Amino acid sequence: MHCLGIESTAHTFGVGIATSDGEILANEKSMYTPEEGGIHPRKAAEHHYTEALNVYKKALAKAGLTPADIDAISFSQGPGMPPSLDVGAVFARSLAQKLDVPLYGVNHVIGHIEVGRLTTEADDPVVLFVSGGNSQVISYAGGKYRVFGETLDIAVGNALDKFARKLGIPHPGGPKVEELAEQGTELLEMSYTVKGMDFSFSGLVTEAERLYNQGASTEDVCFSFQEHAYAMLIEATERAIAHLEKDEVLLTGGVAANTRLQEMLTTMCSERDADAYTVPFEYAMDNGAMIAWLGIEEAQTRDPDPLENTVIDANWRPDQVDVTWR
Ligand code: AMP
Ligand code: MG
Between helices 174-181 and 259-271, what is the axis angle to 10°? Predict the structure, then answer.
């Protein structure tokens, strides 16, 4: 069975093709990058509908398939930015009708988790999902992916990007902040906010800006920003492992590319005799392959979505989904 998955929650329009044998045959994408400032939702959507057909054709070519080989369509139904989500939903509905195949609206966050379970050895992990739009500690319990901890304000990736913008670094700022942080030497005091299992990042952005305006070196501010932000995430993750008595952690989302975050995770896990896994970068960023693979899992275990149930849900949480495939 071949499922074609469509991703369009934010900056990336992606089309992936997965098989029921767990093979990824294609993972094509086109990413919108703003000329200045952050992601403009309307412009991201314009990018998506300009690129959609191209990316779709590239994915088929890459997989060596024709439209007639596609058995099901899945798409990211949420969470995300409504204008971007709508492009993917309309494209998916049209394609499913044209090819006369079943359609599955799937949860983007769960796509991130399931592709991690597919591409690493993690089986039943605590997931640290850190991206531009979300920061959550998630794990499977009682038939659902429960959110055990999450940001109380903005996502860690968004915090990095906002702060980077103040330094004149174009979007997305995370990689450049990481580079500068490697040259930092002094740990400056900043706010450290963990409340129970939740965390918060907006105060950190304000403080980093203040320290920078007061003359602290860019490298030290970047270094201190990373140390504080990532320690908060690791603390909440550690508490989740302890409470749930799980022995695996899966790191995913765009911020999973960060070497320092990976290092802190490895240290914490080794102290707890747990295994740390990081999703390969190609599948950690938003991508169509993760949606295609989740589509396969859902197609094998539940009925397709009638068209009237394929309206986007910008705030759809992973814990609202009944997990039928585990
Ligand atoms: P996503 O929303 O999952 O596509 O991830 C995008 C986010 O990942 C943006 O906020 C980036 O700044 C961030 N990001 C990408 N690479 C790195 C890195 N090496 N270190 C920290 N953040 C990163
Ligand atoms: Mg994402």
Answer: 70
Helix 174-181 with 218-244: angle, nearest 10 deg: 110
CA quadruple 103, 107, 111, 117: dihedral, nearest 10? -110
pLDDT in tens, 194-229: 999 999 999 999 999 999 999 999 999 999 999 999
Question: Residue 41: is it exposed, middle or buried by C-beta count within 10 angstroms (0-12/13-18/19+)?
Answer: middle
Residues with CB under 6 A from ligand 1: 10, 131-133, 157, 160-161, 172-175, 178, 253-255, 257-258, 285-286
Q: For 284-295, how does the pLDDT look when each residue is reduced to its tens digit (9 = 90+)?
A: 999 999 999 999
Structure token digits, residue 225: 């920003």
Instruction: Check: CB of residue 318 under 8 Å from CB of residue 147.
Output: yes
Sign of the Cα torsion 232, 178, 158, 217 reads positive
Which residue bears the tokens 């197609």?
A: 299
Residue 92 has pLDDT above 90, yes or no: yes
| Ligand 1 pocket: which of 27, 255, 258 to mutate (most atoms within 8 A of CB) | 255
DSSP string for 190-258 = ----EETTEE--HHHHHHHHHHHHTT--HHHHHHHHHHHHHHHHHHHHHHHHHHHT--EEEEESGGGG-
CA-based nearest residue to 153, from 201, 193, 197: 201
pTM above 0.85, yes or no: yes
End-to-end Cα distance, the chain: 19
Domains identified in the chain and CATH numbers: 2-112+283-320 (3.30.420.40), 124-278 (3.30.420.40)
